[in-house]
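queue> pop job 88
queue> type: inverse folding (structure -> sequence)
queue> payload:
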């Protein structure tokens, strides 16, 4: 089959179009997690944020940026995949002149979802690698400024979170303008007075910080993740840290020994009080026992005295009865001899009755310490004399 010149021309045109479509594809694809800056053949630019295929136009140029640009500063063995910018640890100086020989951190920068600002970023940096390098430099400056706000002792004594907060604040809002103030401090390890300098952020009249703005704030690039992952002190700082730990350990031991001594002293005092209380209780018990015994003896003495008086009254009554019988017999006409004999027997009987009386065993003497007379003897004689006297009156 013979082809005409027209057919040959059409075939060549189709081939040229196909080759042009392959070489200068007007379609492009934006991947998930990225945005693409498209520059057309006429110089017009726009940004494609949505993922998927789109019409870019013939002979257009596309530049891809990640939605999040990650800057990692760390030891090589800690390097993560899909990092926009990586460098080995940097060196930072503390306010006291000591150094952290190795400082590592990770910052994830979120690019703005605004076409105008994204085009401004592209105009200044032209590609992501340059933007990432600029963000890395800014991160390094913020890290250095943050370390200058405190000395190494303050950092390892609990200032790590304060340092991290200062780092995040500057990354987001701008760098501090730092003012330096001279002061005297006491070294915690040696106790010596050392001249030092305190760096503080400069503030406005309203208390807000004076900040140096950068492209980060101008283009609304936001650090949505910040972490200080490595702080390796120089040897002199490690020696100070070791001395501080040893000092803290000694202080803790001394405090514990003091608490133990105080507890032992308190225990000894309580034991002494307990012994005093025991002796006092024993003495009180003995005193109460003696008082009860004395009261009991007094009660017994009173009871015995009452019994003696009762028996004496009984004997006296019996004597009176016998004397009355004798008197009646005499009145009835006894002879003088019988009367004398009767009185004799009566007296002997009264004496015998009196001899039967049980006298109390406890005798209460005089209070002057001298030996007194037996009161029961006196009582018996008195009763006998009383009976005799009444018989003589008859």
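queue> result:
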């Amino acid at each position: 089959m013979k082809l005409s010149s027209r057919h040959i021309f059409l075939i060549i045109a189709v081939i040229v179009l196909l080759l042009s479509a392959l070489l200068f594809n007007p379609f492009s694809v934006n991947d998930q997690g990225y945005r693409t800056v498209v520059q057309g053949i006429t110089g017009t630019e726009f940004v494609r944020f949505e993922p998927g295929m789109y019409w870019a136009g013939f002979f257009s140029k596309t530049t891809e940026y990640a939605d999040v640009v990650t800057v990692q500063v760390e030891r090589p063995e800690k390097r993560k995949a899909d990092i926009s910018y990586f460098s080995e640890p940097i060196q930072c100086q503390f306010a006291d002149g000591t150094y952290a020989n190795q400082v590592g951190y990770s910052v994830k920068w979120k690019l703005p979802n605004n076409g105008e600002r994204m085009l401004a970023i592209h105009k200044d940096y032209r590609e992501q690698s340059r933007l990432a390098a600029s963000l890395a430099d800014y991160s390094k400056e913020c890290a250095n400024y943050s370390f200058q706000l405190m000395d190494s002792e303050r950092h390892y004594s609990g200032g790590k979170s304060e340092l991290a907060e200062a780092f995040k604040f500057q990354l987001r809002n701008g760098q501090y303008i730092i003012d330096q103030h001279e002061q005297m401090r006491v070294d915690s390890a040696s106790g010596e007075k050392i001249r030092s300098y305190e760096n503080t952020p400069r503030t406005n009249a309203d208390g807000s910080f004076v900040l140096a703005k950068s492209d980060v704030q101008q283009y609304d690039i936001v650090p949505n993740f910040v972490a200080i992952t490595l702080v390796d002190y120089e040897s002199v700082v490690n020696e100070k840290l070791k001395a501080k730990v040893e000092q803290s350990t000694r202080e803790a031991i001394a405090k514990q020994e003091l608490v133990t001594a105080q507890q032992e002293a308190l225990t000894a005092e309580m034991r002494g009080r307990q012994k005093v209380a025991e002796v006092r209780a024993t003495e009180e018990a003995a005193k109460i026992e003696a008082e009860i015994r004395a009261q009991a003896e007094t009660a017994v003495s009173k009871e015995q005295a009452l019994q003696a008086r009762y028996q004496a009254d009984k004997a006296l009554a019996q004597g009176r009865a016998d004397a009355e019988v004798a008197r009646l017999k005499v009145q009835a006409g006894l002879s003088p001899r019988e009367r004398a004999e009767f009185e004799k027997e009566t007296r002997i009987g009264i004496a015998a009755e009196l001899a039967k009386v049980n006298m109390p065993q406890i005798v209460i003497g005089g209070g002057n310490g001298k030996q007194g007379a037996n009161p029961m003897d006196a009582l018996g004689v008195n009763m006998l004399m009383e009976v005799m006297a009444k018989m003589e009156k008859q």
